[in-house]
């Protein structure tokens, strides 16, 4: 999880953590304030894969929040 959260660009670490919390059902959505931008679909998929690999999320989990 640390490799995924702190990957370059490191400034997105909090956005990645918020997306992980959305995937885990702990937050309703991952709000991002400027100048940061919303993560891309492939990056969110990478976070999902890391959560599954860590045993924190079932393999077929879906993401439904903005």
Fold and architecture overview:
The chain is mostly helical. 42% of the residues lie in helices and 0% in strands. The chain has helices at residues 2-5, 13-23, 41-53. The longest helix has 13 residues, at 41-53. The radius of gyration is 11 Å and the shape is globular. The chain starts with a helix and ends in a 13-residue tail after the last helix.
Quote the beta fraction: under 5%
Helices and strands: which structural class?
A: mainly alpha
In whole angstroms, the N-to-C terminal distance is 22 Å
The beta-strand count equals 0
Ranges where pLDDT stays below 50 over 5 or more residues in a row are none
Task: Write the element-wise H/E pattern from the N-terminal end onward.
Answer: HHH
Count of DSSP-assigned helices? 3
**Overall pLDDT level:** 90
Overall shape: it is globular
Rg: 11 Å
Share of helical residues? 40-55%
The largest β sheet comes out as: none
Task: Describe this structure in a few short sentences.
The chain is 42% helix and 0% strand. By secondary structure, the protein is mainly alpha-helical.
Pick out its properties.
mainly alpha; 42% helix; 66 residues
How are the SSEs ordered, and which strands pair?
Elements: H1 2-5, H2 13-23, H3 41-53
